[in-house]
Amino acid sequence: MEEYDIIIIGAGPGGITAGIYAGRQGTSTIMLEKGPAGGLGLEVPLMENYPGYEMIAGMSLIAEMKKQALKTSTLQEMEEVKSLTLKGNLFHVKTVKREYTAHAVILSTGSRHKKLDVPGEKELLGRGVCYCATCDGPLYAGKKVLMVGGGNSAAQEAIFLKNIGCDVILVHRRDQLRAEQYLQDQLKAQDIDIIWDSAVVEIKGDPFVETVTLKNLKTSQITEQKVNGIFISIGDEPINQLAKELGVELDTAGYIITDKFQRTNIKHVYAAGDVTGGFKQWVVACSEGAVAAMAAYNDLQKL
Description:
Number of domains: 2
Strand content: 25-35%
Largest sheet: 7 strands, mixed
Helix content: 10-25%
Radius of gyration: 21 Å
CATH topology of the largest domain: FAD/NAD(P)-binding domain
Oligomer: single chain
Order of helices and strands: EHEHEEEEEEHEHEHEEEEEEHEH
């Protein structure tokens, strides 16, 4: 059983920032991450709105943040947390490898990609159905692909795919995008076509994706697009199972409810990053991680 002052569950942008701030206060802190550090941040192909960098890839920024956090905190990657319980005044964390205790916990468990839930999506996963342009995009250079979505992530990934040589078409179920204007301007500058008011109803192919069936939501017209791949970026849903098991209060969408100091309804439990909902921006996750760590440190001084 390893003992720490603060355990941070999740090492995306919010969790790593919490590790930086908690460690600098002199607390014994560990970050536990079920995969490689970075979470969905690793999938961001390019950012132009993170302070201090005119342009930087998610992988590059994570590498710098991780290096900084490791100066004062411990990081365990590929170590999924299986249970989180409160016994007396101590939190007990059981992972796939070992057990830990701590006086405070910061939940930075992030979110996962939403699925279309259409025929062929599950069956053709990894054989033309993708959720990460940065990860899988290079496999489709010179090929025709669809990008499904209308937010910042979909626009960023469509631009990335175009830049690496894909013939990309964006599909959106509404008649206007939710993406920031500067991204919409880039889509136009790159001559990326957009199919409006349309939803994917089926993905076909054997053994790889060959066609995607679209339905126009205004006219009900059905069309088929011959493609080599489909990238899906229609939003995320919170990873909140540990929070639920601990009794942390959630909103109607499943996101963790916090006060302005990132405190939850359970004493010495804090939350930061995408799992809290709101604006899912890298800089927001970092700010919440910093606030959560400072609040945890200050609250622990009162014990």
